[in-house]
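SAMPLE LOG
Freezer: B-3
Tube label: C17
Construct: single chain, 211 aa
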Amino acid sequence: MLERMLEFYGIEEPLAKAGRIRSYLQMVQERRDWAGLVSRGLPSSTDEAIADSVALAAAIQPEDSARVADIGAGGGLLGLVIAIARPDLEVTLIEAASRKAAFLAEAVGALGLGNARVENVRAESLDAAPFDVVVSRAAGKLMDLVPLSLALLGAGGHYIALKASDVQEELAAAAQAIKASNGKLVSASLIEYPPALKAQSRASLVVVEKL
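STRUCTURE (predicted):
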């Protein structure tokens, strides 16, 4: 299933990358209790969760350049999957909780991800505008995340948030924050899943550009 999913989203070398994703998921199971890794966010199944992350990885365009930050990275379900799927991207996993950050660093090493690094800090403490793309998964409300994320972007950079399917109310609440942060809503679209994935629900991708 993982190989077909990666192929569906246009990810190269799906066989090798599926193997790395399986190794990552095994690490999550083994270290879940120690690191306090809890399942948070949108889908109820692992296949849906990985599909959401791969879809976001595929949505990062070459013109967006290479520097990606995953804020509130947690157990790496978004950032590590992006790093596996897109070795052309430099992924920084930002996580304030020490044990989660330690797990992320362990996973980066064990998976041989030379394009990923971990910052055990709060995103607010990072220097402004070092990234081209900021991503998040179930890390909070858009009205709170937009100012934080756009502050980490240079002009023309994009914040891509993985959200639930019904995001219109949250977008309306975030409209002022987007404007005040010198941003522009580019799109809010439902993720398309492979035909073989019988998803119980659909997630959406919200894209905001830093002007």
